[in-house]
């Protein structure tokens, strides 16, 4: 996955403010360390602002759409609090991806499609998994199972 690196623009900040009216009026997000969901939302806001221009990666990446942003918020709300906080990255398709990594060949990546689908891949030692599941505000058992396996290793 590529991290976006374009410059912040006032229009992109206005987009985040329009989708999250309670967001702070500046770029410094004061969030308690213990609140995983708030941290993830802050990271999503930063990624949205950083990736506000088409082709933000130099390879034709799309901007994060409002639908993709809202679906990723729903995904964050569905994450069980007992799992460690994933890394949030902008996907070149204009979606958000969430990455959990525990070392070499120990990772789970979930891309949140605004069309109510989660696309996932996992490396768990010598086994590889990938798939797609419908998403309606509840983490699919297949994705939760992969995360449980990752943190049992």
Supply the key terms.
153 residues; globular; 33% helix; five-stranded antiparallel β-sheet; alpha+beta; single chain
Which value, in Å, is the CA radius of gyration?
15 Å
Order of helices and strands: HHHEEEEEH
Helix-residue proportion: 25-40%
- Overall number of strands: 5
Major sheet attributes: 5 strands, antiparallel
Residue windows where pLDDT falls under 50 for at least 5 positions: 1-17, 20-34
Class computed from helices, strands and strand pairing = alpha+beta
Mean pLDDT, rounded to whole units? 82
Shape, principal axes of CA atoms: globular
- How far apart are the termini? 23 Å
Strand order in space, largest sheet: 1-2-3-4-5
Alpha plus pi helix count: 4
Descriptive overview:
The chain has helices spanning 10-19, 36-50, 66-78, 141-152, and strands at residues 87-90, 96-103, 106-113, 117-124, 127-134. The protein is an alpha+beta fold and 153 residues long. The chain has a five-stranded antiparallel sheet. Strand 4 (117-124) and strand 5 (127-134) form a beta hairpin. It is globular, with a radius of gyration of 15 Å.
């Amino acid at each position: 996955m590529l991290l976006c690196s374009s410059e912040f623009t006032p229009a992109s900040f206005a987009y985040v403010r329009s989708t999250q009216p309670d967001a702070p009026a500046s770029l410094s997000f004061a969030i308690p360390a213990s609140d995983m969901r708030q941290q993830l939302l802050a990271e999503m806001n930063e990624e949205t602002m950083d990736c506000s221009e088409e082709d933000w990666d130099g390879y034709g990446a799309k901007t994060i759409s409002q639908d993709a942003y809202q679906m990723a918020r729903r995904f964050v709300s569905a994450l069980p609090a007992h799992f460690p906080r994933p890394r949030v990255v902008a996907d070149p398709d204009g979606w958000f991806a969430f990455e959990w990594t525990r070392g070499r060949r120990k990772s789970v990546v979930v891309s949140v499609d605004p069309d109510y689908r989660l696309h996932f891949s996992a490396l768990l030692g010598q086994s590889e998994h990938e798939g797609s599941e419908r998403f309606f505000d509840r983490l699919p058992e297949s994705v939760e199972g992969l995360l449980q396996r990752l943190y049992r290793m």
